[in-house]
Amino acid sequence: MLLLSACSKKAPDKETPKPEVNEPETTEQTSDKTDEYHFPLTGIGTDVEPNRRAVAVMINNHPEARPQTGLSQADIVYELLAEGNVTRFLAIFQSEAPENIGPVRSAREYYIELAQGYNALFIAHGYSPEAEKILSSGVIDNLNGMRYDGTLFKRSSDRKAPHNSYITYKNIEKGAEDNGFSMTGPPASMDFYKEEELESISGTGANHIKVVYGNSSQFTAEYQYDSQSGEYSRFSDGEQTVEYKTREPVLVKNLLVIETEHKVLDSAGRRFIDLKSGGKAYLFQEGNMKEIEWRNTDGQILPYENGQPAKLVPGKTWVNVIPSLNDVSYELK
């Protein structure tokens, strides 16, 4: 094993489960090079203009909320710390519309800030006091389970609150219609490689990545690259991230890990996370790592290399937001 990280800790040597993989739902996405259009957040081709508005959903990542539902269909997923060393996800959906999404969890102001960068309809169940003020101000269209619990949001009987709130995409559309929220208008497109450019991707070989949040392994995220598929599988605390019902794995093409300032604000452990200033980052693609920088461009967290936007591999992207890149290790194994 060749250890390539400055971090001395080695990822745990475990046999990872190989969940049964069901056939994915048919979507309008296609790999045809002649496609007239491309989805703005994945770069995947489509023959229909992708005019759907993005939807940003707060998703629970507590161990009792795993496996989650809908994550495999998100174009972009952000993982950030909430109180303590517990992380939550903000899943951005635009190219696909999952039948069901959840468990849905409460909002924090920096998740709202991220959703605004995509002009997304923001979905959450609950809020911190500061997040409640922001949502009440009307700066972002939103649907919240505090108002719609039992109507748009449904409780699952096989899990306990607060880990059992779900919302269907049909109910998202119904809530938008009832409130006069538009469901058209896609976000700005990101930069993607063309197929013939993928072979030019270079960097330090790194096909196993470990991102540590706090002292507990419960919120340690790991990614394993498969050279045959060109995708990364994701793991939480050693367990593969899969869909709850189908066991379909969450697979991503790009992993962006950004370093930024975190501050604990009060005795409850609520945080300030700087999503504006930019800084150091790692970009993992095609089994390689590049040291780059991140910038906030019109509200979106984007990778930059040598002062120019770094291209993404067409497909899904995950973004891990951490206080220090010292919490990241990567190796070739």
Automatic annotation (TrEMBL):
It comes from the Bacteria. Residues 1-38 are annotated as: Disordered. Gene3D superfamilies: YerB-like. Residues 41-182, 210-319 form the DUF3048 domain. Residues 10-21 have a biased composition (Basic and acidic residues). SUPFAM superfamilies: YerB-like (SSF159774). This is DUF3048 domain-containing protein. It comes from Lederbergia citrisecunda. The lineage of its organism: Bacteria, Bacillati, Bacillota, Bacilli, Bacillales.
